Amino acid sequence: MVTTEIAEKIQRLEEKYAAMGQNLSSYLDGLLYADYLTYWDYIQLDVLLNLQHPRTPIPDERIFIIYHQITELYLKLSLQAIEQISLAPVLSAEIFKTQLKRINNYFHSLISSFEIMVDGMDKEQFLQFRMALLPASGFQSGQFRMIEICSTRLNNLVYEPQRPEVEGLELKDVLEKIYWRSGATELATGKKTLTLRQFELKYMDTFLKLATEYKDNNLLASYKKLSPAEQTELIPLLKEYDLNVNVRWPLMHYKSAVRYLHKKPEDIAATGGTNWQQFLPPKNKRIVFFPELWTDEELSNWGKIAMGE
């Protein structure tokens, strides 16, 4: 029996497909003969479970791969949420809060689950399979760098002592001084590592395009477009986000590096040749997305409390 409600929906479908020059009957035929959707097809489960290709037969390498893949999926969700804020046709505090809460939840999940990397692998197995990964490195996560670029003024991603040098420069020139580039230089010679050269070749054009697109629409710029009352509502969430991305997340990586790479009398080098002892601790990086929201004392102690100092 065709109810009035169903008839109205059929009429709307006819109008929809007519506007595209299509016949509704053809689409109904397709729906009639289409198979039922299954969970495994919808999320491409078979593909997903076959995306792990270890380079060695060492069992714990699969843990390493899967966790990094999970991480990249969370980063993708975070970028989508940032886009909902920064590119909203009409920005409101409500949109900002909704999406920022989501991002914080994504990072809370990543941070709390990173124990999988800190304690979830056998140290000897890790030290064996890691040599097959050279020169790949988590440093090469382009999505994480995109999150940084979309979150704040590009100058804030330059080490503090160098910021006066980049004030007023074109975005391309500021990118030349972005903090992470100095974190992947050979310790002995100061030259760029292969890890960094590969990364720049793949992503620098993308980063410049993104920095240009988000110059006036990054999270900090979007926050400043709101009224003082709306800004006040967002401050706790923005500070939480700042701590999640710039203190808690790198601190978990540092703990993992200490667990697997600390060795007396000399630490083991990272696969990408990065100076992890200096590069990973948040108190050394001192990168802050929203410096205006923190007191001078908080900024001077950035990352130290989290590291138990």
UniProtKB/TrEMBL annotation:
Gene3D superfamilies (alphabetical): 1.20.58.480
GO terms for biological process, alphabetical: L-tryptophan catabolic process to acetyl-CoA; L-tryptophan catabolic process to kynurenine
Keyword presence, Endoplasmic reticulum: no
Official protein name in the record: Tryptophan 2,3-dioxygenase
Alphabetically ordered keywords of this record: Dioxygenase, Oxidoreductase
Listed GO MF terms: heme binding; L-tryptophan 2,3-dioxygenase activity; metal ion binding
InterPro entries given in the database record: Trp/Indoleamine_2_3_dOase-like, Trp_2_3_dOase
Origin: domain of life: Bacteria
PANTHER family: TRYPTOPHAN 2,3-DIOXYGENASE (PTHR10138)
